[in-house]
Design a protein that fits this description.
heterodimer; A: mainly alpha; B: mainly alpha
Chain lengths: ~40, ~500
């Protein structure tokens, strides 16, 4: 596998999968916090 | 049966939206388009257009559906006034016209899943098997009906008990299948050559305008931006659900699924074609009838040589069937949403829709000419649908739209002024470029002699004729189109 292909593969996977996982985690954390706040103590 | 008309969690809603976005376009179309457009070089504009077309439109749909609590027709009417309901009507017609032949494709994936499991797919050469299947009209109709029945059953169960529950089961399964397939493919001897082909950038191809236009088309069609499907699902979202962050998640998730599919397809083709004396580059670029070449002919042929190939082939078609089914579900839901807006029950709306949709799918099931014509006309129509969403925002006022619809109090991701610029400048320009390019292709390559003809398969004339007919009917219907939609708040 050529060096340029390896670099592009790493960048593409990091940008797309990284973006997806980070944003999904953020969304689910916010959702959990919202639900906790909504639950009457 | 008690049927809740809202998603019970953000996770469930996101999975349903990802199920809508991730379809056969990711597994079947993406590798072929990459192969024909310079490998790694194609991926750069494809990634860029996620931000210049797909995510802003997904965000717009999410914001409109969540706030108006109506399907496409009611949404446009609420946003811009009853005179504009026809625009939403066009969005709905486009997606429903696609549904008519997408159900046929979904049927093919189900048939091939069974054929792979039983091993009958290898009873003849892959090409002969495919042509035999295509010639069997009864089977075409049966499997189209099976696809409608499966998707219809899930939609009938409602949003939380049907769509959300199914998405929670099917989407993780799809991810697992793609990961297993990718790991197996990458570890095959010779698989690295496929990875190199997939990611090696031919930088000079970036100077080719065709690569940019194909990248834009792929991003637009794969994410489902501008189809009205995310708008439909957003009707069932919480009223304070975020639009910006969720749109980015759907966009990134769809791209990630495409990359995973590429990691599965390219190394498999390169590793397995060597043993058969085939040229791998040609295989991944092969379109075949209705672009079926790679998925339905070459993959079965290649997996024949793989140890435990039957199971890997079944896993491939299971992934394809899940991807197709979850997208078909969203199209059916869009269809019945139009009736739910008028106060119909879910059962009545679904029965009516299926009773009309199945007969209308028959021409595409029996004739690849009709199938390809519809794919051409309504696939391009989606670009117009995308523009209509941008026009709606421009008419409403982009800054006002962001304030009233997108950046609600407590939202997770505040969308800035970049959105205004993208919607007012980038999307209309990209629309013009993309439409001009596809129509130019029709005139110069697909049908140079009959490009004006309204009944030719890939002509400019057939696009303009069918779009104009639909728009004229919708405009004639005028206020009647929206009058029967009660102007009251949504169910929640």
């Amino acid at each position: 596998m050529s060096k340029s292909a390896a670099i592009l593969m790493t960048l593409m996977l990091a940008a797309n999968w990284g973006g997806f996982i980070c944003l999904l985690r953020l969304a689910l954390r916010r959702e959990a916090r919202r639900r906790t706040e909504e639950t009457p103590s | 049966m008690e049927r809740s008309e809202s998603f019970t969690s953000r996770w469930g809603m996101l999975l349903a939206m990802l199920g809508m976005a991730v379809g056969t376009g990711n597994i079947w179309r993406f590798p072929r388009v990459v192969a024909r457009n310079g490998g790694g070089a194609f991926l750069i504009p494809w990634f860029l257009f996620l931000f210049l077309w797909s995510v802003p439109l997904l965000m717009t749909e999410l914001a409109i559906g969540r706030k108006t609590r109506r399907g496409p027709i009611g949404s446009f009417a609420r946003l811009l006034g009853p005179r504009w309901g026809w625009m939403g009507g066009f969005v709905a017609v486009c997606s429903l016209a696609i549904m008519l032949y997408y159900a046929v494709v979904s049927g093919w994936t189900i048939k091939y899943l069974f054929a792979a499991l039983s091993g009958s797919v290898w009873s003849a050469s892959s090409t002969a098997y495919w042509h035999g299947f295509r010639a069997a009209s009864a089977q075409q109709l049966l499997f189209t009906l099976v696809a409608y029945a499966l998707a219809g059953w899930i939609v009938w169960r409602g949003v939380s008990s049907g769509i959300e529950k199914a998405s929670k089961l099917l989407m993780p399964t799809l991810l697992l299948l793609l990961v297993v397939g990718a790991v197996r493919a990458v570890t095959l001897p010779g698989g690295a050559a496929g990875l190199d082909f997939f990611f090696r950038p031919e930088w000079e191809r970036l100077l080719d305008h065709r690569v940019w236009l194909e990248a834009l088309s792929q991003s637009a069609w794969s994410t489902g931006a501008g189809w009205g499907l995310v708008l439909t699902y957003a009707v069932y979202a919480r009223r304070d659900e975020d639009a910006g962050l969720n749109a980015f998640i759907v966009g990134f998730g769809d791209n990630s699924a495409s990359l995973l599919a590429g990691l599965m397809i390219f190394p498999s083709v390169f590793a397995l074609s060597a043993g058969l004396g085939l040229v791998p580059d040609q295989i991944v670029m092969d379109t075949g009838p209705a672009n079926t070449g790679m998925a339905f002919i070459w993959i079965p042929e290649l997996f024949r040589t793989l140890p435990a190939g039957r199971w890997f082939l079944a896993a491939f078609f299971l992934a394809l069937a899940i991807a197709a089914l979850t997208s078909l579900i969203s199209m059916l839901e869009l269809g019945i949403r139009l009736f739910l807006d008028r106060g119909w029950t879910r059962t009545k709306a679904l029965s009516y829709l299926l009773a009309v949709a199945f007969p209308l799918s028959i021409p595409s099931a029996l004739s690849l000419d009709v199938f390809e014509n519809q794919d051409w006309v309504w696939g391009l129509g989606l670009i117009l649908s995308g523009l209509f969403f941008a026009v709606a925002v421009i008419r409403y006022g982009p800054s006002r739209f962001r304030a009233d619809f997108v950046n609600l109090p407590g939202c997770d991701l505040k969308v800035g002024r970049w959105y205004d610029l993208v919607v007012t400048v980038a999307i209309p320009l990209l629309f013009a470029a993309m439409l001009a390019w596809w129509l130019y292709q029709s005139v110069s390559q697909y049908d140079p002699r009959g490009w004006w003809h309204p009944f030719h398969r890939f002509s400019v004339g057939t696009c303009l004729f069918q779009w104009a007919a639909v728009i004229a009917m919708l405009m004639l219907a005028g206020r009647a189109l929206v009058q029967s939609i009660p102007d009251q708040e949504g169910e929640r």
